[in-house]
Amino acid sequence: MALSKVTDEEFIELMTLHKSVTKVALIVGMSVAQANKRRRNIERKHSIQLVATPYHNTHYGQANSVYTSPTVINLGMLNGTVIVFSDAHFWPSRRTTAFKALLWLIEELKPSVVVNNGDAFDGASISRHPANGWEKTPSVLEELKACEMFLGEIDDAAKLANPKCKLIWTLGNHDARMNMRLAAMAPEFIGIKGFNLIDHFEDWQHTTSCFLNDKVMVKHRWKGGIHATHNNTMGSGVSIVTGHLHSLKASAWTDYNGTRWGVDTGTLSQPFGPQFAYAEDNPRNWRAGFAVLNLRDGSLISPEICMVNDKNPDCVEWRGELWNVSAF
Hints:
- The protein has helices at 8-18, 21-28, 32-46, 97-109, 140-161, 176-185, 228-236, and strands at residues 72-74, 80-85, 113-116, 166-170, 205-207, 209-213, 216-219, 239-242, 249-255, 258-264, 289-296, 299-300, 304-308, 315-318, 321-324.
- By secondary structure, the chain is α/β, with parallel strands linked by helices.
- Helix 2 packs across helix 3 (32-46) and helix 4 (97-109) packs parallel to helix 5.
């Protein structure tokens, strides 16, 4: 069946029959990313949901299940560029400068891997913290739609820049809020499609921790405090890239084994955005941006930071220059 001849009705029929984006992609002659984009467009256009079974990706040696995600994966990378962002806390209708810069550098650098290092989903309305008075926060549905839209753009940009780009999502504590609430309040619904956050993001490989190779680990969080990046690499014995603290920085440690790095990937959100109203406008040692990692012969060379500029909120600092990314 030729790609150009597939109508919406035919695509819906194929998805209803096979319940697999991967199978439909093979039948109609498109990539899985293209098929998922077509699926999203049809769902919006016709106000329907095209149910798909979980995508089993044997390339990583482990597969997503209905209930859980792999604890750890190892990509075994020797060479390539990896972009790692975290703590996006995606909010409806808030397109941040850091997010625009991410799309720009994906296009420019054509990474081998893009890692969403946790907390793309915020879960404000299901937080364990009490409501801040009568503050209006987005519903779970509104947040899911925002995540689908923004992560869909990242997916599209990555696959356009490098069709072989891998998309990894390391679970964050905010990401876990949806599953934790449902597991506590409605345990009888376990296994039903849609009750797990990963069911809504099948283009991404979900895990807790991701080794880029045996020397470089990416995970959402470990140690806390202002010296977390230093303590993480000291305590782990490898270069380790974390989010959670929003501090966006890199710390080096050198011993008889050579130099390794502790990296904090900052926040893709605005540090004073509505997601963080609980902080009461207090000063915070947070920076918006993300990290770029380059692997050469299995070793991590000096990590690079792309950071939103304090003086010009439309610009990011990248390799000693200011870049206006408002067009993205």
